[in-house]
Specification:
elongated, 107 residues, mainly alpha
């Protein structure tokens, strides 16, 4: 079902569950990126962020007005995409400053 056919509540549930279930342990990437350009320092703030999302239960979403649900969708999707930027990070084409910017955004 395309996103426009899903209710805002269903979209919020999907976005929230996706970020709550994110595997933070995949973020460091020490073996692939080496000891100088890995994302080990992103793990702790990322875990705090996921833990914050976990405080918001799926059942509570039905109590929120549509505009707040849209905000939850936007924030959860943005953070999910930020985590995926770490997984997509390529130290052959991206530099340490770009890595630091991603870590700082999470923190």
């Amino acid at each position: 079902m395309p996103d426009e056919e899903k209710s805002v509540l269903d979209q919020a549930k999907e976005s929230l569950l996706r970020i709550q279930d994110y595997d933070i342990q995949a973020l460091p990437r020490v073996d692939e990126l080496g000891k100088n350009v890995n994302f080990l320092h992103a793990v702790k703030p990322a875990q705090k962020l996921v833990d914050l999302y976990k405080k918001l239960t799926i059942t509570a979403l039905s109590d929120f007005p549509e505009q707040h649900l849209k905000t939850i969708i936007q924030l959860a999707d943005s953070d999910y995409n930020l985590f995926n930027q770490i997984l997509d990070f390529d130290n052959s084409t991206q530099n340490k400053e770009e890595r630091d910017a991603i870590i700082n955004t999470i923190a």
